[in-house]
Amino acid sequence: MTAGPPRTVIVRHSKENPRKCSVLPLRGRPDLVFLGYPVKEMPDLTGYVRLAADGPELSKEDAASGLLLLDGSWRWAAAMTRDFQHVPPRSLHGYQTAYPRVSKLGTDPQHGLAAVEALYVAYRVLGRPTEGLLEHYHWAAEFLRLNGWS
């Protein structure tokens, strides 16, 4: 029996509004580990890739890697990213968000996705099961339609 890929690590910023968090309903899934930011005890992220706005695109070559997802508003992204620079970045380009984002600071990247959208896309790219990822996501149907998956 072959072990699957490492569990996905999701690091949530402590100032992120839980009511606006798209990944919190996924707590308790066996393939996910949630950590608060700032992280008190850094996990071993050897063999992981970090989902990021920039960097080489995530591809099937990353299928055996663990995923690190930093979840916080774009204004906190730089601070969070500094703590995880040692984890190679991978980007997701060509996908559209359905999340109705409004940045008062103009900090949202053009190809930015809600955390649950990024997780869903990454799992699709890596060939991992996506069942249940969008179950509690209010904009799931629109997200799937926008990206040609409905």
Please specify the SSE layout and strand pairing.
Blueprint (H helix, E strand, L loop, with lengths): L7 E6 L18 E6 L10 E4 L14 E6 L2 H9 L6 E2 L24 H12 L13 H7 L4
Parallel strand pairs: 1-2, 1-4, 3-4, 3-5
Overall 3D form: globular
| Low-pLDDT regions | none
Q: Which structural class should the secondary elements be placed in?
A: alpha/beta
Distance between the termini: 33 Å
Number of helical elements: 3
**Strand-residue proportion:** 15-25%
The biggest beta sheet reads: 5 strands, parallel
User: What's the quaternary structure here?
Assistant: single chain
Helix content: 10-25%
Q: Helix-strand pattern, N to C? A: EEEEHEHH
Radius of gyration: 15 Å
Number of strands: 5
Mean pLDDT: 90
Strand order, largest beta sheet: 2-1-4-3-5
What does this 3D model show about the protein?
With 150 residues, the protein is an alpha/beta fold. 19% of the residues lie in helices and 16% in strands. It contains three helices and five strands; from the N terminus they run ββββαβαα. The chain has a five-stranded parallel beta sheet. The model has no long low-confidence stretch (mean pLDDT 90).
Key features?
5-stranded parallel beta sheet, 5 strands, 150 residues
How would you concisely characterize the structure shown here?
The chain has helices at 74-82, 115-126, 140-146, and strands spanning 8-13, 32-37, 48-51, 66-71, 89-90. By secondary structure, it is of the alpha/beta class.
